[in-house]
């Protein structure tokens, strides 16, 4: 019965929510995926990230508006269910859960790769296991402690990205010592701005969408946020400009300083390569450490998102009620432990696939982010059609044009990605979606029996 379900506490503030969104989005997709995106699109990767950023802006505006109008919502599943029905909500919940558990597994391996920068003799799987144990421990703390940890981790990496941007512009325009300012010549000197044509740009969009994925975690924090109808719109406004800036400017610096065809195929991140160019002793080690913290921060946010989705499902009686049980510190301990188990699955996978694990998982995750954004956009479009007129509070000024633009852009990106992505990744992802649909037909549409 409802009274038996333990409730999450509203202890997260606007600064926590903003940093969580940044923590979820500024992780392996930026620091490790950047090499892949640049290799696919060359300098035109800047256009890919600009398109992705604008689409993300439109999606998040719609999410914020729906959150303001549905104050009782716990996650964006509740927002979608009232508009698109139970199947769409069920599908969204489980693909979002799948996205995060696979993402934290992938990022555990990426974190291990950066640890190998200092410990080259230690196997990837051992380092991934160490990172996984750290993440598990942090998430079992109280929500406030978790949010505070995430806040400072995100703040550290944002500070260093700002330093990276400043240092990058100095390297671009000023000569000193053995360094000669290169200006913008690398943007066109190696096959032009579109070295791999429009196809390269379209293929890179999967990496781009994956990289931006995680920002929508704001929609999972509703049950633990103080005054979500005020906090969520403010967090959306302040977060999006920062995400776009923290992607576009660093990528502009990387493709301007380093020939795009020299970025991929090396073990270190392009960010570490740029810090090496500065010539400050130990700068590369500093950047490697910050990237490691950034990825741990992203994993932190991901495990939070996955465990809260599972908690909500248990509260509604769709999975065993044990996953709704809270610890003395008011965190869903069993939900966290189940989601954490996928970290260790990732560790086992890395035992055989090694550093290629991230590339294998990233394709499926990109598809999932596309689907999540599409469902949020469609729900926002239909929410106004239900006769609900927005007269007060946060609302999207240029509705429905921005939402339609987002849907059309996502559809075009999806078609392009299907045509340019490995058929194996596409079929595996389609199989997962089919499994979720079949599970709904047999279990998901039944009324709550445990809650």
TrEMBL record:
This protein's UniProt keywords: Amino-acid transport, Cell membrane, Membrane, Transmembrane, Transmembrane helix, Transport
GO terms under biological process: amino acid transport; transmembrane transport
Membrane topology: Multi-pass membrane protein
Location(s), subcellular: Cell membrane
Domain Amino acid permease/ SLC12A: 16-424
Superkingdom to which the source organism belongs: Bacteria
Signal sequence residues: none
Species per Swiss-Prot/TrEMBL record: Bacillus swezeyi
Transmembrane feature ranges: 47-68, 100-118, 124-143, 155-177, 197-223, 244-263, 286-311, 331-354, 360-378, 398-417, 423-442
Name of this chain's protein: Amino acid permease
């Amino acid at each position: 019965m409802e009274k038996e379900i333990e409730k999450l506490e509203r202890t997260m503030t606007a600064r926590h929510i903003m940093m969580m969104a940044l923590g979820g989005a500024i992780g392996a997709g930026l620091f490790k995926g950047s090499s892949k995106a640049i290799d696919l699109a060359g300098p035109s990767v800047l256009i890919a990230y600009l398109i992705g950023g604008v689409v993300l802006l439109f999606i998040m505006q719609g999410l914020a508006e729906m959150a303001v109008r549905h104050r009782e919502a716990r996650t964006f599943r509740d927002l979608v269910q009232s508009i698109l029905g139970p199947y769409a909500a069920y599908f969204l919940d489980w693909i979002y859960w799948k996205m995060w558990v696979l993402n934290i597994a992938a990022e555990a391996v990426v974190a291990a790769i950066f640890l190998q920068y200092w410990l080259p003799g230690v196997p990837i799987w051992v380092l991934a296991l160490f990172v996984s144990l750290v993440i598990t421990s942090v998430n079992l703390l109280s929500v406030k402690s978790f949010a505070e940890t995430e806040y400072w981790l995100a703040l550290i990496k944002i500070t260093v990205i700002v330093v990276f941007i400043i240092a990058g512009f100095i390297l671009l325009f000023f000569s000193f010592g053995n360094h000669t300012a290169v200006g913008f010549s690398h943007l066109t000197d190696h096959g032009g701005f579109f070295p791999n044509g429009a196809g390269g740009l379209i293929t890179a969009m999967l990496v781009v969408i994956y990289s931006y994925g995680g920002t929508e975690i704001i929609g999972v924090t509703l049950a633990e946020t103080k005054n979500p109808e005020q906090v969520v719109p403010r967090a959306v406004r302040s977060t999006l400009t920062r995400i776009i800036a923290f992607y576009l400017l660093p990528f502009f610096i990387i493709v301007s300083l380093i020939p795009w065809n020299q970025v991929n195929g090396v073990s270190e991140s392009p960010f570490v390569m740029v810090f090496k160019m500065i010539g400050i002793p130990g700068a590369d080690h500093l950047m490697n450490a910050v990237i490691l913290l950034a990825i741990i921060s992203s994993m932190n946010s991901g495990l939070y998102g996955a465990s809260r989705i599972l908690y909500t499902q248990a509260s509604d009686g769709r999975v065993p009620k044990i996953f709704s049980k809270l610890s003395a510190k008011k965190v869903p301990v069993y939900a966290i432990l189940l989601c954490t188990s996928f970290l260790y699955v990732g560790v086992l996978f890395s035992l055989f696939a090694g550093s290629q694990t991230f590339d294998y998982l990233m394709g499926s995750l990109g598809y999932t982010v596309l689907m999540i954004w599409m469902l949020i956009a469609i729900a926002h479009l239909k929410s106004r059609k239900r006769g609900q007129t927005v007269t007060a509070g946060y609302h999207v000024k240029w509705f429905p044009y921005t939402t339609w633009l987002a849907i059309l852009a996502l559809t075009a990106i999806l078609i392009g990605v299907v045509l340019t992505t490995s058929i194996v990744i596409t079929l595996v992802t389609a199989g997962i979606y089919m499994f979720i649909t079949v599970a709904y037909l047999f279990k998901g549409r039944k009324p709550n029996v445990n809650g």
